[in-house]
Amino acid sequence: LTGKVAIVTGGSSGIGTETARVLALRGASVVLAVRNTEAGEAAKAAIIKDIEGRLTAAGAGAGAGIPPAVRERVSVMALDLGSLKSVRTFAADYLRLNRPCTNNAGVMMCPFMLTADGYENQVGTNHVGHFLLTNLLLPKLKETAKKDNTEARIVIVSSAAHQFPYRVASAWTPSTPAPGTTPSRRTGSPSSPMCSTPGSWRDDSRRRGQR
Q1: Is the pTM higher than 0.85?
Q2: Based on C-alpha coordinates, what's the Rg of the chain?
Q3: Which CATH architecture has domain 5-209?
Q4: Domain residues of the chain, as ranges?
């Protein structure tokens, strides 16, 4: 993935951090798009430490430490998907780059509250924020992919939970497949939307929801 750049929403913990780690390990430059930049910086440090350890073990970094180019693979940018203003600000700062996009950030089974724009928090964060982000980035993704004769990818982390009946997670379950229902109708070549269901993952959002 050398020469590619990926944005991972929710990259400060759980699936997001692991996704970012593997992308960076494969040579991609990764942007951790996170609400809590302090947590994002901690995740960045952990990812760089992991890559450094692997390079040292392989002999590539022995004696000299990790090369500066590798250290620069991971960066942190502020993005609150519960605020459409934040989404627009992030997209404006990000549009000058050729980026794949992994829509992973989300909230789950939290107490009822509204986003700054008046949406139920889970639907607003898991779907509306990602929908706006994808649409703001899409024209540039398509333009750059066509220019470079390559493919821009939008990867959406979803869940099979939309099959569950109405209960405590009722607001979360319909919100998870929603981001994957529209990009395929709107992108067109050379942008490729994908939807991934990683299975059960005991991350921070699930732990908070089970308290």
Answers
A1: no
A2: 17
A3: 3-Layer(aba) Sandwich (3.40)
A4: 5-209
